[in-house]
Amino acid sequence: MKLASVRIIAADIKTMVAFYEMVTGQQAEWLAPVFAEIVTSGATLAIGAAETVSQWKEGSAEPGANRTACIEFQVEDIDKDFGRLKDKVALIHDMMTMPWGNRTFQFRDPEGTAVSLYEPFTNEAKARFGAR
């Protein structure tokens, strides 16, 4: 089994896709007017419009209601990405080093989901991720 994607249900899919294109620097692939994917080397971030929920079960997902999950992107230069994004996103916290050795900052997407960018920082964290 592999984690294939994380899907966000968006009230305003165009705004959300544009936001994640800006964060990742990657172009989304629109597979339908109500569904887009941003494919990264680690996993895919899928973004579905609220209308797609009815394909599963009505009420099974709700845009803007997430307060438990955090979408994380590992980056090569956390300082560069912080400088690029700090004035464009709603910061939750500034740059900090977590107890498990990642240097990170966190912000919210336009509909409230927490997003973190991080870089393995300590020797232990670098070894865990195979980074130098």
What does this structure look like?
With 132 residues, the protein is of the alpha/beta class. The chain has 2 domains: 1-58, 2,3-Dihydroxybiphenyl 1,2-Dioxygenase, domain 1 (Roll); 68-132, Roll (2,3-Dihydroxybiphenyl 1,2-Dioxygenase, domain 1). Helices cover 20% and strands 36% of the residues. The chain has 3 helices and 8 strands, in the order βαββββαβββα. The protein has helices at residues 13-24, 78-85, 123-129; strands at 5-10, 29-32, 35-39, 44-49, 70-74, 90-97, 102-108, 114-120. Strands 1-4-3-2 form a 4-stranded mixed beta sheet, with helices on one face. The protein has a 4-stranded mixed beta sheet with strand order 5-8-7-6. The chain is globular.
Helix and strand topology:
Elements: E1 5-10, H1 13-24, E2 29-32, E3 35-39, E4 44-49, E5 70-74, H2 78-85, E6 90-97, E7 102-108, E8 114-120, H3 123-129
Parallel strand pairs: 1-4, 5-8
Antiparallel strand pairs: 2-3, 3-4, 6-7, 7-8
Briefly characterize the structure.
This protein is an alpha/beta fold and 132 residues long. The protein is built from three helices and eight strands.
Structure keywords:
8 strands, 2 domains, 132 residues, 2,3-Dihydroxybiphenyl 1,2-Dioxygenase, domain 1, alpha/beta, 4-stranded mixed sheet, 36% strand
CATH class of the largest domain: Alpha Beta
Domain count: 2
Low-confidence stretches: none
Number of strands: 8
> N-to-C terminal Cα separation, in Å?
28 Å
Query: What Rg is obtained from the alpha carbons, in whole angstroms?
Result: 16 Å
CATH architecture of the largest domain: Roll
Sheet with the most strands, sense and barrel status: 4 strands, mixed
CATH homology superfamily name of the largest domain: 2,3-Dihydroxybiphenyl 1,2-Dioxygenase, domain 1
CATH topology of the largest domain: 2,3-Dihydroxybiphenyl 1,2-Dioxygenase, domain 1
Strand arrangement, major sheet: 1-4-3-2
- What is the residue-averaged pLDDT? 92
Q: Structural class of the secondary elements?
A: alpha/beta
Could you tell me the strand content as a percent range?
35-45%
Q: Give the CA-based shape.
A: globular
Indicate the percent of residues in helices: 10-25%
What is the N-to-C succession of helices and strands?
EHEEEEHEEEH
Tally the helices: what do you get? Answer: 3
